[in-house]
Design a protein that fits this description.
Pantoate--beta-alanine Ligase, Chain: A,domain 2; binds adenosine monophosphate; about 290 residues; Rossmann fold; alpha/beta; globular
Length: about 290
């Protein structure tokens, strides 16, 4: 495995690669969710490039950029074991030199949910992902369903700006008690960690209701609110039921694939979780087919 820090080194290495290249962008502090993206990339490609970059432009001023967890030696060890060929771990100054002034705004699908709670977040995400696509020139790029709105934003950007690659969406990897894995789970106290299980519980109950025939959007949303409200350490931020293709919030029962997503503050971290409805769509094939698709 080659580890490179500069754009020049990355470009030289990229030119030497023959065959399909898969890209796995991350912010490091890796867990089994990230490793699952690498495994999917390995299955489809001859070469896997993983990036580790805590992207400053996707953090708002009041967020945890400075304290975001980092452990480069452990990350590199995990990526090596997972079979990554090239790790690109640039310094912020290489990605954003002092005269940097070009940003990408993906308009409608960046609004609401994470975009509403974190102004400017998806502008930072779209900009850095576009740069990584240009630098790595991958045939496919791998993203987690965990950040479902991010997938929809990136897919929209890929279509709008004619990037020539496919986006693969990998299912949410969970702890044994159901909590979606996240680098930010490390911030949870033991009590908060117990309370955090309620997010997945709420999704399971809503998913079951939907699969048994409940279609009223207000009933599905309210069910989740009531479950989350029960847990005193959990402060829900939003509960969204949206068309999985374009993230339009739905008000009338429809028989389109849906994205049910929730976010809640649990102590220091904001936790996100979601499921596609019907529940059978929560696979790599199902999520890749519907989430942000044309
Ligand atoms: P991050 O390092 O948090 O920016 O995440 C890098 C990539 O890993 C993103 O595409 C995430 O959606 C994905 N990811 C994060 N957590 C999980 C998880 N629990 N299961 C699957 N993918 C994940």
């Amino acid at each position: 495995m080659e580890v490179v820090e500069t754009i020049a080194q990355l470009r030289t290495l990229r030119q030497s690669l023959k065959g399909r290249v898969g890209l796995v962008p991350t912010m490091g502090y890796l867990h089994a969710g990230h490793v699952s993206l690498v495994a999917a990339a390995r299955a489809d490609n001859q070469h896997v490039v993983a990036t580790i970059f805590v992207n400053p432009t996707q953090f708002a001023a009041n967020e945890d950029l400075a304290s975001y967890p980092r452990d480069m030696p452990r990350d590199l060890n995990m990526l090596q074991k997972a079979g990554v060929n090239i790790v690109f771990a640039p310094k912020a100054e290489s990605i954003y030199p002092s005269d940097f002034q070009t940003y990408i705004t993906v308009e409608q699908v960046s609004q609401g949910r994470e975009g509403g709670a974190r102004p400017g977040h998806f502008r930072g995400v779209a900009t850095v992902v576009a740069k990584l696509f240009n630098l790595v020139q991958p045939h496919s790029a791998y993203f987690g369903q965990k950040d479902a709105q991010q997938v929809v934003v990136i897919r929209q950007m890929v279509r709008d700006l004619n990037f020539l690659l496919s986006i693969v969406v990998c299912p949410i990897v969970r702890e044994t008690d159901g909590l979606a894995m996240s680098s930010r789970n490390v911030y949870l106290t033991p009590d908060e960690r117990q309370s955090a299980k309620i997010l997945h519980r709420a999704l399971q109950i809503v998913g079951k209701l939907y699969d048994e025939g409940e279609r009223r959007p207000q009933v599905l949303r309210q069910t989740a609110w009531d479950i989350l409200d029960h847990e005193k350490r959990v402060q829900p931020s939003y509960v969204s039921l949206a068309d999985a293709r374009n993230l339009q919030e739905i008000e009338q029962p429809i028989d389109q694939p849906l994205l049910f997503s929730i976010a809640a503050q649990v102590g220091k971290p904001r936790l996100l979780d979601n499921c596609l409805l019907p529940l059978a769509l929560n696979t790599q094939e199902g999520a890749t087919r519907v989430l942000g698709a044309d």
